[in-house]
Structure formats: structure tokens, C-alpha cells
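**Paired protein data**
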Amino acid sequence: MSFKSFPPIFDEHCRLLILGSFPSVKSREVSFYYGNKQNRFWGVLEEALGLDKYAAPSDKAAFLLEWHIALWDVVCECEIKGSSDSSLVCLKPNEVDRLIKGGSIKTILCNGTTAFKLLNRYFPDIDANTVLLPSTSPANVRFDREKWLDALKNF
């Protein structure tokens, strides 16, 4: 069975793009990015930028846009078992290059190794500074909060 990702949170003022690999089961259930309450993503944004991690999805999206941050996933359509990136088979990537082309996004923060590898596989010539950060997934036992905080504070 194949699954599709969400549309990007994006406008023409975004200067930073945060890319994940593909929404988890919990995220797909709530139809919004990083819907698993155990995922550290929204907590890191709360600590770095002041976002209320318990805010409604529409408020989170508005907050990101106020900070000129876009949010998307590399994979548009895939086959996946559960939420594990190790079982992810990309059927179609999102058009990340079109989002970047001619816009003001200059930096991409990749949320985990899978997002980073997929971005480089499908878009090796992308014109942006690409940064690999540790996955915020609760499955990542080597998560390093400081790397995320530094990347966001430097933005």
C-alpha cells in the first residue's frame, strides 16, 4: 500500500527549509507534520524560537511562516511499514528543487540521515546550503538537541 505526504508549509518569504523523510503513522493519523507527541521536533522549536509545542497545527504553520521557515518532506509517495525509515521505498520524490528554484530559501536543514540521503540522491545539484541534523524521531537514541538549537539560533 502506498502513502502520500502532506503539502509544504511554504510562502515566498521563506529562507529556511526543514526537510524530513516522510510523515510517521501518527502524523498521517492527525494529518500534520510531526504528529507523534514523542517526536522532539516541536519541542526543539519551542526551546529555540518560542513556539508553543501544544499549539494547533494551523498555529504551528503560521508560526513557521512568521519565522520564514518552510517545512516539507523529501518523499511525496512511498511504500512504508509503520513509521520506520528503514522500510521506506520512495515511489516519487516531492519537487523540492522547484520549491527552492528562484526563491529565497538558502539553507536546508535535513531532519535525519534518511532525509539527507534522499535529498542528495534525487536533487544532487540543489542550490542551497544543506545541513544534516540528527533525527528528532523518538526512535533515535543518539539525538543531539544542541545541534538543532545551534542550527535554529544561527538562522
The chain has a mean pLDDT of 92. The chain has six helices and seven strands. The longest helix spans residues 57-66.
